[in-house]
Amino acid sequence: MVCLLIPSAIQVPFGLAWCVTSQYLLESRRRKELRKAFGFYLSPEMADLIADSDFDLHPGGREVEATVIFTDLENFTTLSETLDPAEVSNILIAYFEQTTQCILKNRGTIIKYVGDAVMAALGASVVELAHARRAAEAACDLRCLAEMNVRGKRLRTRVGVNSGKVLAGNLGSSFRFDYTMIGDTTNFASRLESLNKYLKTQVLISDSVQQQLGEKQFVTRFLGEFKVAGKQQSVVIHELFCRCAEANGEEEWIATFELGLSKFRAADFGAAAELMERTTQLRGGNDGPA
Q: In sequence order, which residues have a C-beta less than 8 Å from that of residue 143 and are 6 or more positions away?
């Protein structure tokens, strides 16, 4: 009897260890497969969160401080009318490939692609205290793509960036939902992107973003106060150009523009007109805000 019990005493712990190890390996494989699948849809960090068994997959959200980015392609609807759907798809895939890299390398999360637009966020799904600065970094990279050549087509992208409180989470129904951000912060980021069309600019940022960038890090210019849809009060808007280390003589014409703007705000329209004309000349004959 003792002889029979000895193999059992060995086999039971061994079997238990084998079961635990097998379960661990299966769980690790499950998480790896989930991460790989979601990695095609979201940022790597977001994919890691969803692959984590503790991630809440129920509808709902939480209020967080974040920075939201919207991008859009100029005149892409008109361009699409001259192309077949397959070519439109190929151009968009190539464009999204480049814009997505700019966002992911700055720890951003791709929220969604809508037509030719990209919505991204920083600081919501992954904790990032410097989310506004990283968003500005991403916007500078996106600006470098502003006059890109994709599959033989000249494309110009526009960007809007805003920081503030958002409701971030799984929003939708019990049948289907998206991880997204809603609220005034998101709406205003979208408005900023659209405003580029009227000002003939490429990257617009809100004052809340500007206040978090610090001095001597980025080249920006103050554009004034604007009344925008959805806002009862006028809002301050800035244009973002590049990192200070990448500056290329912008200081002179930005100073001229801002002096002209101060003259305009003081109702000295004659002096303002002269300074705006000077700004346009310094920029090679083309400056939308001036």
A: 159, 202, 203, 240, 241, 242
Q: Are residues 222 and 266 in the same domain?
A: no
Dihedral (Cα; 160, 76, 228, 131), 10-degree rounding? -10
Range 254-263 average pLDDT: 95
Q: State how far the alpha carbon of 34 is from the alpha carbons of 39, 40, 48, 109, 217, in Å.
A: 8, 10, 8, 17, 38
Phi, psi of 81 (to 5 degrees): -65, -25
Both tokens of 215, joined, read 């001095």
103 occurs within a structural domain: yes
pLDDT single digits (tens) 109-136: 888 888 889 999 998 776 677 899 999 9
Average model confidence (pLDDT) for the chain?
Answer: 83
Q: Which two tokens stand for residue 19?
A: 């079961």
Question: Residue for token digits 């979601």?
Answer: 38
User: pLDDT tens digits, residue range 37-67?
Assistant: 556 655 666 666 666 655 566 677 788 899 9
**Helix or strand (DSSP H, E) at 3:** helix 2-39
Residue 62 structural domain: 57-245
Residue 17 lies inside a defined structural domain of this protein: no
Those residues with Cβ within 8 angstroms of residue 196's Cβ, 6 or more apart along the chain or in another chain: 158, 159, 160, 202, 203, 204
The dihedral built from the CA positions of residue 148, 290, 136 and 109, taken in this order, carries a sign that is negative
- pLDDT at position 185, please? 94
**146 with 71: CB under 8 angstroms?**
no
- Nearest Cα residue to 196 out of 160, 143, 154: 160
Question: What is the mean predicted confidence (pLDDT) over 244-253?
Answer: 87
Q: Tell me the sheet residues that pair with 179.
A: 170
> What angle do helix axes 85-104 and 131-144 make, rounded to 10 degrees?
140
On whether residue 229 sits in a domain, the answer given is yes
Within this chain, do residues 198 and 81 fall inside the same structural domain, yes or no? yes
Same domain, 184 and 84: yes
